[in-house]
Design goal:
Elements: E1 5-8, H1 16-25, E2 35-38, H2 41-51, H3 62-68
């Protein structure tokens, strides 16, 4: 299985959050690799509501995100190195 990508939204005032949410909704159709988002969860939830999108959101650790895709973690790059085990 393809390892998941870790995405950031870029500038929150830009179009990155909207593009990311739209990509999530079309990920199977577009054959996108699995991905998770590194962002402020309250901001993303508010943006999702504002756009009227039905996107499931969950706060997870890097290990939980990798486990959600059913793959083994073979190393990591994390903003907080204490999160890498």
């Amino acid at each position: 299985m393809t390892r998941p990508l870790a995405l950031t939204v870029g500038e929150p005032a830009g179009i990155g959050p909207d593009i990311t949410l739209a990509a999530w909704l079309q990920r199977e159709e577009l054959k996108l690799p699995p991905f998770y988002l590194l962002a402020d969860p309250q901001f993303i939830a508010a943006r999702t509501r504002h756009l009227g999108l039905n996107v499931p959101l969950a706060n997870v650790t890097p290990d939980e995100a990798v486990a959600a895709f059913g793959i083994e973690r073979a190393g990591c790059a994390d903003v907080d190195p204490s999160g890498c085990r």
